């Protein structure tokens, strides 16, 4: 028998067991905890790579490890995309040898198992998803499954968390107010140089001087936003650069492949970023 | 002709003035012995005939007799008679000519072979055409002949005469002039006489007017060149002659200009280059010569050669089509420019400006711009060095070209070094200096407190905190110039250390530059003592660590000062720390006498060991020490009390040398903290305590700036000593420029200082729309948080028809852009035809949907009936209204260098005055020939309209302007349901700057238009150049907020009605108010307005698809 080398769990049994590394910027942890205690849905706002997903993981872990928590709270993450429909979330019938079989979607599973359901980039999903989100995010806390003709009441532990990146370029993809106003919003932004350096050095395991330089670089690149750069360099990219550096790639080259070419296709900006990189790194 | 006897002749000659007879007798006496009888008789008879020819001809006889003896010496008898006869013939034509002939004969005979005499005479004679002018010319020729023949052969002489004759057919005056010029040219042994004569004849035939300038250049410039060069030049000229568009004089002058650009030794090389061009592609020669000065700015000769060879290759490859080569040598083709860039080692600012701007913006986090430093010196606001980098806190000024090194990358690195230094002044807060902020170094607290105290007590008013500290309070007040210099050195040092520490990649380049500058700096032993000390300190700040030359006895001072610097670096000090170091350094340096240089024996070599930890206690932690210092420098009298330590070096009463500021460090450039602070803080609200405790920043008054200009040691006013009147004039100009500059920058925060407005629109009530095509709209009052009902009256008009050419021209001029946009827009189409799934009816069953339906059936759930798909034309139902700002400010030139105030707040409130004001403003706009904002807006509209036609969306184009709430003008360029036609394109042409910008009602009117139009998605594009503003937009003080909030409210209304607003502005300062105005609507600030035509369609596409 082939030895199973990977870990396999059902979605509703996925529990964050190891403490994820998270450096809070403000009071987001307290706010989230309070919101969870009151079962108020949470909207995470902020540019890409600012730690929204990591935050949810961290919170899932933290809630599980709080004293007094009796039941595990699983974390179910759904990355939303343009073709994601309501039935992708709720579930659907599948054919099998004996006829048909109902399969719960991730949202249904988490409603039943009482976990945190995290819809990443929720605006990307098709509009019909909002219909099922609405009853889950107000006092009803119910999920209607049309095809089964059922209404599922959410388990006590259930909480819907969505994330949203307010890109201002596309007016069509905006969160409707009726949806928006069902969440408390926590804003995410890039951490300051000191915190970011800490994050980078922790995540990539590089020395402080390198993480410091990368953090400064990140800050400098973000200064270029609104000067032709649509989105600042994410912490994630900085961490990638740091990891490459750790692998022995020269800092300049590492920054080029992970940052310069990653963040923009515009030559002028690329050149600028290159120059900034070459000023910061030896 | 009757022949007379000697005696008879003698008698007959008596009838004329007696010199005639005297000369006759004298000459005959000599000739008697030399000539045979017959010839002698012929001779004397010719003489007599001459005299008898006419009433004046005795003068000819006189000349004849005078020169005969001399002439005879050179001629055999036969030729001598020939000569006599020629003279006689000439006399019959003109006595004047004949006299010149005789007079010039003796000398000519020494140069001319006898057998040529006849030829000579007849050739010269041919010039004579019977007119007075031709007489003069002929005389001139005779007179100059001896001189001319000194240097040229008779053959050449004949050619010269031919040339002069043909020239004389055009103009006798010029012929005479040229004759003289040629004589001069020949007289200096001109080597290329044949070529010159040949060329001259050709030129005369083709374009005789060019002869004179050609000769002038030859005489004045070309003759001075070595012969080999002249030969080359004439070879080229011969080749070039006859090519269309080439004037030889022009060619000569261009080539001389070119030669003037290079060293003497390099002239051959450059001439050979030109020759190469002439031989291979003569038609580009002039273009090449014209481009050489530009080329030599960035290329050296080898590189120029390389560049030229490429051009020639291009010309040879394309020998049927001269255009590419022409453009290449005119520097108009991209290839030519790229090639320069490739070959040259120098770096031009223009090519890297945008990069530098983004680089500095990125590093500093401020929105800085980059400009050529010569721009700044032209503005005359206190900066005088045109090639040094500097910064005014908002713009970083860099030199035009850097050509210090052989290698391009090094030159680029130098740019980076100087740009980073300037940027660092912003990044590390130099201009934000505030004496109230505590320095980092705790040992400096005593000094800090004392400075603060002095500042509070000081009665002097100064424009900036820098000015106040560096000039008004002790110790600095005793010598502000020295104080400024020291602070500059210290602050530059601080900033440089931070750069070296933070930007490790730049470290090497930075240290190299510093090292080079140390070497280039003056030897301090030539300087007066105090200056020498400062010089050594500067060298220290540039990284020098060994062999400081310090006068014995001053070493303690020097080491102490270096100690302060090292501490500043160690604690990673702030600008406030720099200031406290400046106090300490000043205290020590100002006490040094500025005596003449001391002999070398007095000089000691000192090394500095940076690693030495300085643990010595800081003497300035001692209150007493500070008191002593303040007293010492505070009032001149008190220093005589002698309370301070005896061993301090006292300010010497001996005659000291005048103190001169050190040379600026080249890469650090001009350091202008006062102006920098002044200009930056005019822009920021934080500047409110610039004037000291609790005082509100109210904008600078004229007096304050005057004071700044007068007192600032920063500002090097020109010719200060030479002429005091001139000086004050220059000052006046400087002052005005400064005011202008501040006004320019001060787009947002200056309080409006026009007189009290006469009335506010607070008064008055709702308006009523009675006339046709007028509408009333409410306006939002953000203070009362409610609408003012029917507050604005809007007049809708159709814009008058104009020329349709503008539309067509714009499309032609931007054809490549049009093509690109079209391609992009066409990509939208396929999306419209995409496969539509889940339909009740369609081309084919959708497999996925079908399976789902089957599953549903089996599991007893109502299946979805939508199981078909179809390639469907999804109806794109988009309506967009483009709303264009037609305010007066759009008349501004888009070159921001010449940008004048774009603020309309200066508008008078009285309607009559307002119109006058407006007219003058518009007239100003009309005179401009350059591109205005509105022109770019128009271009954008043209491209947009063109693209929208491709796309088939419904669209309307409207413009708005107005003056006052009762006169909001709304111009229809194309209504939503109007079809595009020539009328529309004609109207676009008529878009022009009009009045003010009252956005609210215009937006509301557009909303009502869009509301009545049926479309699934509706958009409103607002294109503007600045914040909304109008006469009497609410009461004074809050107009800006009022305008912004009303506009915001109007946009919210749009959103409520399902219209998506988008604002595109070209106002660089747009971010601040747009953030409020657009709330969470989309907007974009274009950093470069010329991007507008390209960006507009792109945005539209992104927004609507």
Question: Can you lay out the helices and strands and say which pair or pack?
Answer:
The complex is a heterodimer of chains A (282) and B (1105).
Chain A: H1 28-37, E1 42-45, H2 52-65, E2 75-79, H3 86-90, E3 91-96, E4 99-104, H4 106-113, E5 116-120, H5 128-136, E6 142-145, E7 150-153, E8 159-164, H6 177-180, E9 184-187, H7 193-204, H8 208-223, H9 235-246, H10 251-263, H11 267-280
Parallel strand pairs in A: 1-8, 1-9, 2-5, 5-8
Antiparallel strand pairs in A: 3-4, 6-7
Chain B: H1 6-13, H2 18-31, H3 37-53, H4 58-74, H5 77-93, H6 95-111, H7 117-125, H8 132-151, H9 154-168, H10 172-187, H11 193-207, H12 211-220, H13 227-240, H14 248-261, H15 267-280, H16 285-298, H17 301-317, H18 323-329, H19 334-343, E1 347-348, H20 349-364, E2 369-372, H21 373-379, E3 390-391, E4 395-398, E5 401-402, H22 408-427, H23 445-457, H24 465-472, H25 480-502, H26 504-520, H27 529-541, E6 548-551, H28 555-570, H29 575-589, E7 603-606, H30 623-634, H31 673-681, H32 702-711, H33 724-745, E8 774-781, E9 786-798, H34 805-813, H35 815-826, H36 828-832, E10 835-839, E11 844-845, H37 847-858, E12 868-871, E13 878-885, H38 911-927, H39 933-951, E14 954-962, E15 968-974, H40 982-989, H41 999-1011, E16 1017-1024, H42 1039-1056, E17 1059-1065, H43 1070-1077, E18 1082-1085, H44 1092-1104
Parallel strand pairs in B: 2-4, 9-15, 13-14, 13-16, 16-17, 17-18
Antiparallel strand pairs in B: 1-5, 3-4, 6-7, 8-9, 10-12, 11-12, 14-15
């Amino acid at each position: 028998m082939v030895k199973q080398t990977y870990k396999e769990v059902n979605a509703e049994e996925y529990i964050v067991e190891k403490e994820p590394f998270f450096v809070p910027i403000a009071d987001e942890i307290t706010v989230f905890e309070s919101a969870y205690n009151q079962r108020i849905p949470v909207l995470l706002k902020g540019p890409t790579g600012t730690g929204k997903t990591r935050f949810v993981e961290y919170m899932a872990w933290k809630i599980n490890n709080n004293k007094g928590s009796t039941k595990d709270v699983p974390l179910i993450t759904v990355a939303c995309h343009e073709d994601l429909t309501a039935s992708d979330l709720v579930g659907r019938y599948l054919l099998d040898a004996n006829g048909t079989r109902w399969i719960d979607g991730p949202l249904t599973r988490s409603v039943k198992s009482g976990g945190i359901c995290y819809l990443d980039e929720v605006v990307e999903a098709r509009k019909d998803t909002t219909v099922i989100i609405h009853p889950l995010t107000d006092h009803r806390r119910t999920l209607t499954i049309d095809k089964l003709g059922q209404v599922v009441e959410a388990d006590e532990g259930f909480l819907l968390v969505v994330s949203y990146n307010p890109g201002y370029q596309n007016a069509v993809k905006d969160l409707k107010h009726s949806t928006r106003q069902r969440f408390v919003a926590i804003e995410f932004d890039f951490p300051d140089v000191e915190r970011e350096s800490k994050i980078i050095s922790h995540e990539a395991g590089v020395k402080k001087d390198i993480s410091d330089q990368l953090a400064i670089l990140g800050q400098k690149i973000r200064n270029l936003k609104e000067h032709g750069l649509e989105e600042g360099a994410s912490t994630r990219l900085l961490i990638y650069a740091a990891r490459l550096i750790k692998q022995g790639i020269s800092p300049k080259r590492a920054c080029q492949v992970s940052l310069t070419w990653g963040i923009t296709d515009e030559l002028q900006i690329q050149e600028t970023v290159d120059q900034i990189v070459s000023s910061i790194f030896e | 002709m009757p022949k007379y006897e000697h005696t008879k002749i003698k008698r007959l000659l008596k009838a004329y003035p007696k010199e005639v007879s005297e000369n006759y007798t004298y000459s005959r006496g000599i000739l008697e012995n030399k000539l045979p009888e017959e010839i002698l008789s012929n001779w004397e008879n010719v003489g007599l005939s001459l005299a008898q020819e006419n009433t004046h001809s005795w003068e000819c006889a006189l000349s004849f007799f005078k020169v005969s003896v001399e002439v005879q010496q050179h001629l055999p008898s036969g030729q001598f008679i020939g000569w006599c006869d020629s003279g006689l013939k000439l006399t019959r034509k003109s006595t004047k000519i004949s006299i010149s002939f005789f007079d010039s004969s003796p000398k000519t005979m020494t140069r001319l072979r006898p057998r040529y005499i006849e030829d000579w005479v007849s050739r010269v004679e041919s010039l004579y055409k019977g007119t007075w002018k031709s007489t003069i010319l002929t005389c001139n020729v005779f007179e100059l002949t001896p001189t001319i023949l000194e240097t040229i052969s008779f053959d050449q002489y004949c050619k010269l005469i031919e040339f002069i004759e043909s020239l004389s057919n055009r103009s006798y005056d010029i012929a005479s002039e040229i004759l003289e010029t040629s004589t001069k040219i020949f007289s200096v042994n001109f080597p290329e006489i044949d070529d010159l004569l040949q060329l001259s004849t050709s030129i005369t035939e083709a374009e005789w007017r060019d002869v004179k300038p050609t000769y002038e250049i030859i005489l004045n410039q070309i003759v001075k060149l070595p012969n080999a060069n002249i030969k080359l030049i004439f070879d080229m000229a011969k080749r070039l002659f006859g090519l269309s568009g080439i004037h030889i004089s022009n060619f000569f002058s261009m080539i001389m200009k070119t030669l003037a650009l290079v060293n003497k030794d390099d002239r051959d090389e450059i001439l050979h280059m030109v020759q190469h061009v002439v031989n291979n592609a003569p038609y580009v020669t002039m273009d090449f010569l014209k481009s050489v000065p530009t080329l030599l700015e960035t290329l050296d000769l080898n590189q120029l050669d390389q560049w030229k060879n490429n051009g020639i290759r291009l010309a040879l490859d394309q020998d049927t089509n001269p255009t590419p080569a022409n453009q290449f040598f005119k520097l108009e083709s991209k290839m030519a420019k790229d090639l320069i860039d490739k070959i040259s080692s120098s770096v031009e600012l223009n090519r890297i400006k945008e990069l530098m701007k983004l680089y500095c913006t990125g590093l500093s986090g401020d929105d800085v711009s980059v400009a050529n430093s010569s721009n700044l010196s032209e503005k005359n606001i206190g900066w005088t060095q045109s090639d040094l980098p500097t910064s005014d806190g908002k713009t970083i000024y860099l030199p035009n070209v850097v050509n210090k090194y052989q290698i391009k990358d090094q030159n680029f690195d130098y740019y980076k070094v100087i740009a980073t230094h300037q940027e660092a002044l912003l990044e590390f807060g130099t201009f934000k200096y505030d004496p109230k902020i505590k320095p980092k170094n705790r040992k400096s607290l005593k000094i800090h407190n004392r400075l603060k105290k002095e500042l509070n007590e000081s009665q002097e008013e100064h424009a900036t905190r820098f000015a106040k500290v560096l000039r008004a309070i002790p110790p600095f007040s005793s010598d502000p110039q020295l104080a400024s210099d020291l602070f500059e050195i210290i602050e530059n040092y601080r900033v440089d250390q931070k750069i070296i520490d933070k930007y490790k990649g730049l470290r090497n380049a930075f240290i190299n530059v510093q090292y080079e500058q140390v070497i280039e700096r003056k030897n301090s032993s030539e300087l007066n003592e105090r200056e020498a000390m400062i010089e050594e300190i500067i060298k220290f700040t540039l990284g020098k660590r060994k062999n400081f030359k310090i006068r014995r006895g001053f070493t303690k001072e020097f080491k102490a000062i270096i100690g302060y610097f090292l501490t500043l670096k160690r604690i990673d000090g702030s600008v406030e720390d720099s200031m406290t170091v400046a106090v300490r350094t000043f205290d020590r340096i100002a006490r040094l006498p500025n005596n003449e240089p001391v002999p070398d024996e007095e000089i000691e070599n000192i090394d500095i060991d940076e690693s030495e930890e300085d643990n010595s206690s800081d003497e300035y932690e001692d209150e007493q020490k500070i008191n002593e210092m303040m007293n010492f420098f505070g009032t001149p009298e008190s220093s005589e009390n002698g309370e301070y330590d005896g061993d301090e070096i006292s300010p010497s009463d001996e005659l000291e040398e005048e103190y001169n500021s050190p040379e600026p460090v080249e890469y650090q450039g001009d350091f202008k903290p006062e102006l920098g602070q002044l200009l930056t803080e005019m822009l920021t609200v934080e500047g409110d305590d610039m004037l000291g405790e609790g005082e509100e920043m109210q904008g600078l008054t004229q007096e304050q700036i005057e004071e700044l200009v007068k007192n600032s040691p920063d500002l090097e006013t020109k010719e200060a000593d030479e002429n005091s009147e001139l000086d004050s004039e220059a000052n006046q100009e400087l002052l005005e420029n400064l005011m202008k500059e501040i006004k320019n920058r001060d787009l947002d925060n200056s309080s409006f200082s026009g007189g009290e407005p006469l009335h506010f629109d607070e008064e008055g009530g709702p308006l009523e729309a009675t006339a046709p095509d007028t509408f009333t709209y409410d306006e939002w009052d953000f203070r009362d948080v409610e609408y003012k009902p029917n507050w604005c009256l809007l007049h809708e008009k159709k814009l008058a028809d104009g020329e349709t050419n503008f539309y067509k021209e714009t499309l032609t001029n931007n054809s490549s852009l049009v093509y690109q946009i079209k391609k992009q827009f066409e990509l939208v189409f396929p999306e419209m035809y995409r496969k539509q799934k889940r339909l009740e009816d369609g081309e084919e069953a959708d497999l996925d949907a079908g399976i789902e339906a089957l599953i549903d059936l089996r599991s007893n759930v109502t299946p979805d009936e939508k199981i078909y798909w179809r390639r469907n034309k999804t109806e794109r139902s988009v309506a967009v209204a483009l709303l264009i700002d037609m305010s007066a400010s759009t008349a501004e030139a888009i070159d921001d260098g010449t940008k004048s105030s774009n603020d309309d707040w200066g508008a008078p409130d009285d309607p009559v005055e307002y119109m006058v004001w407006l007219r003058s403003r518009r007239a100003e706009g009309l005179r401009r020939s350059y591109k205005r904002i509105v022109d770019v807006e128009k271009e954008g509209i043209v491209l947009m309209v063109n693209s929208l036609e491709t796309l088939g969306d419904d669209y309307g184009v409207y413009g708005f302007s107005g003056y006052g709430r009762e006169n909001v003008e709304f111009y229809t360029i194309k209504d939503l349901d109007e079809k595009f036609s020539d009328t529309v394109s004609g109207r676009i042409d008529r878009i022009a700057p009009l009045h003010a910008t009252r956005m609210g009602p215009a937006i509301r009117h557009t909303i009502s238009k869009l509301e009545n139009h049926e479309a699934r998605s509706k958009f409103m594009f607002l294109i503007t150049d600045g914040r909304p503003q109008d006469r009497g937009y609410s009461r004074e003080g809050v107009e800006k907020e009022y305008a912004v909030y009303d506009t915001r409210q109007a946009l919210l209304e749009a959103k409520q009605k399902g219209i998506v607003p988008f604002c595109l502005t070209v106002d660089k300062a747009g971010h601040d108010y747009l953030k409020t105005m657009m709330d969470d609507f989309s907007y974009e600030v274009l950093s470069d307005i010329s991007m507008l035509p390209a960006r507009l369609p792109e945005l539209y596409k992104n927004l609507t698809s």
